[in-house]
Design goal:
- It is found in: Cytoplasm; Nucleus.
- Residues 92-101 have a biased composition (Polar residues).
- It comes from Candida viswanathii.
- Residues 40-63 have a biased composition (Low complexity).
- Among the domains are: 125-154, no CATH class; 155-330, Tethering factor for nuclear proteasome Cut8/Sts1 (Methane Monooxygenase Hydroxylase, Chain G, domain 1), CATH 1.20.58.1590.
- It is 67% helix and 0% strand.
- It has helices spanning 24-27, 40-75, 82-89, 92-107, 118-124, 127-140, 144-151, 157-173, 184-207, 216-233, 240-261, 273-287, 289-299, 305-337, 343-348, 358-363.
- Helix 10 runs antiparallel to helix 11 and helix 13 runs antiparallel to helix 14.
- The radius of gyration is 65 Å and the shape is elongated.
- The N and C termini lie far apart (219 Å).
């Protein structure tokens, strides 16, 4: 028989959790059909093993939870909340400014590289590149040549002479050092530069001839500088080709001198011959043209003799005109001193004295 107050494996009943221990005898039900009828020793051992397993499982679970709490406390010190920290880093004003900047940048136009404007590009070019640009443009569009000739400013005399001096200096700089300056070898070395210089001289001389240039003084000044460069400064090479080229150039320059000096006669404004001669003589005397021509003529094998003769002829004409004018003036002054009326004035005076005769007076 089983004794009263028996319990399964030390597991208390539900009723015993709320009741005192002295009432356990009354709550036992020995006649319960669900309770197996085994020995007390076996029941006690099985109940104790199950209780040990449950207690070990609960203790392991509690230990793991405790370790997790410790790890989390080590990673996050006391009073530090990662969510709050992240919220502090992202300030509302910063977020608003960032979003505003993004909004402004989206409205800003995109900046990309672009070529220089044409006026700025031309301004940055040097003389050589600008000259090449214009020449290439005329080569590609030849119809622009006439327009550019019309709108281009006319070069001054000093600019023209500076360019000619540069061309002339190229000839002198290419002369050999250890050789005779007037030899054939020297001429062959400077021949391309000499041709360029003579071509430039020809272009500018035609630009300073009438009717393009109406100022005689400007034309004569330019011709004087060019003549000095060719006759007095250019080496006189012994090469036959150079000698022929030099003489031909001097003849053409002498003809240009004659054209410029005779433009006063061909000027429609000077209708009277004595006026044109007076203008020319004044220029010859002020610029000392005859002295300069004589120097050029001595070196150029009398290539300027016809120009000298023309100037002398104009000087003689002017002297003759002045002599005649002086003689006429002297004659008029002598007649005035003698009381005689000049013939020119007596022809203008014609009075009829018949009305004032004695016969007419008596009849009245």
């Amino acid at each position: 028989m089983m004794s009263a107050g028996f319990q399964w494996g030390g597991v208390p009943n539900k009723d015993t959790l709320h009741e005192p221990s002295h009432n356990t005898s009354s709550t036992a039900n020995p006649t319960d059909p669900h309770i197996p009828r085994y020995g007390s020793s076996s029941l006690t051992s099985s109940s104790s093993s199950s209780s040990l397993q449950a207690s070990s499982t609960s203790s392991t679970t509690s230990t793991m939870k405790k370790r997790k709490r410790e790890d989390s406390s080590d990673a996050n010190p006391a009073g530090h909340n990662p969510i709050q920290a992240s919220r502090k880093l992202i300030h509302p004003t910063t977020t608003t400014a960032t979003s505003a900047n993004k909004y402004k940048r989206s409205r800003t136009p995109r900046i990309i590289g672009q070529p220089l404007p044409l006026p700025r590009l031309i301004e940055s070019l040097d003389k050589a590149n600008l000259q090449k640009l214009v020449q290439d443009l005329i080569t590609i569009h030849p119809e622009l040549q006439t327009t550019m000739t019309k709108i281009a400013p006319k070069p001054t005399i000093q600019d023209s002479l500076d360019l000619l001096h540069d061309k002339f200096n190229m000839i002198i700089s290419h002369l050999p050092y250890k050789c005779d300056v007037e030899s054939d070898y020297s001429y062959l070395r400077i021949k391309p530069h000499l041709q360029e210089f003579l071509s430039c001289v020809s272009d500018f001389i035609l630009n300073y001839l009438p009717p393009l240039e109406s100022n005689m003084i400007h034309s004569l000044h330019f011709l004087e500088e060019v003549t000095k460069m060719i006759i007095h400064n250019l080496p006189n090479f012994t090469n036959q080709e150079f000698q022929y080229t030099r003489l031909t150039a001097l003849e053409q320059i002498a003809n240009c001198w004659l054209i410029v000096l005779s433009q006063a006669e061909n000027n429609p404004a000077n209708e009277k011959e004595d006026v044109s001669t007076e203008v020319l003589v004044k220029v010859i005397q002020e610029l000392e043209i005859l002295e300069k021509l004589h120097k050029h003529n001595e070196v150029s094998l009398n290539k300027f003799q016809k120009v000298i003769d023309y100037c002398n002829d104009k000087l003689e004409q002017h002297e003759l005109i002045m002599t005649n004018n002086n003689a006429a003036a002297a004659a008029g002054a002598g007649a005035a001193n003698n009381g005689a009326v000049p013939a020119s004035l007596s022809d203008l005076i014609s009075v009829d004295y018949s009305k004032y005769s004695l016969a007419n007076t008596s009849s009245i």
